């Protein structure tokens, strides 16, 4: 069994993927646009204006694959009640990743030493996705 995160960017998926390429060295391993759907009749068809939006993508970040889509393309994405945790090898990497994710976003808890990690912090990126960055042991 495999449990994966599936993020719906509500029309901003391609922008988000480009951002994560820079911030987290993300790699797209698969991307399908709505216009490429081989069975549109089974998914409600392709709404006008969404043809080039991302229907489904697989994005590798480190050893993890995140799934993503533009979803219904109705406007600003909202992410509530969850966070993605990124464990890095050292403090320099934590600082770099945290700063990259914070660019255009909002720092919730600045990176600092905690009882469980030499560096831990929380940030909501420019798309509203919550991230926790920590140095592993």
Can you put this structure into words, describing what you see?
With 137 residues, this protein is α/β, with parallel strands linked by helices. It folds into two domains: 6-69, Signal recognition particle alu RNA binding heterodimer, srp9/1, CATH 3.30.720; 84-135, Signal recognition particle alu RNA binding heterodimer, srp9/1 (2-Layer Sandwich), CATH 3.30.720.110. Helix content is 18%, strand content 34%. The chain contains two helices and eight strands, in the order E-H-E-E-E-E-H-E-E-E. The chain has helices at 13-24, 91-102; strands at residues 6-8, 27-33, 54-61, 64-69, 84-88, 106-112, 120-124, 130-135. The protein has a four-stranded mixed β-sheet, with helices on one face. It has a four-stranded mixed β-sheet with strand order 5-8-7-6, with helices on one face. A hairpin with a 5-residue loop joins strand 7 (120-124) and strand 8. Helix 1 packs antiparallel against helix 2. The two termini are 26 Å apart.
What topology emerges from the helices and strands here?
Blueprint: E1 6-8, H1 13-24, E2 27-33, E3 54-61, E4 64-69, E5 84-88, H2 91-102, E6 106-112, E7 120-124, E8 130-135
Parallel strand pairs: 1-4, 5-8
Antiparallel strand pairs: 2-3, 3-4, 6-7, 7-8
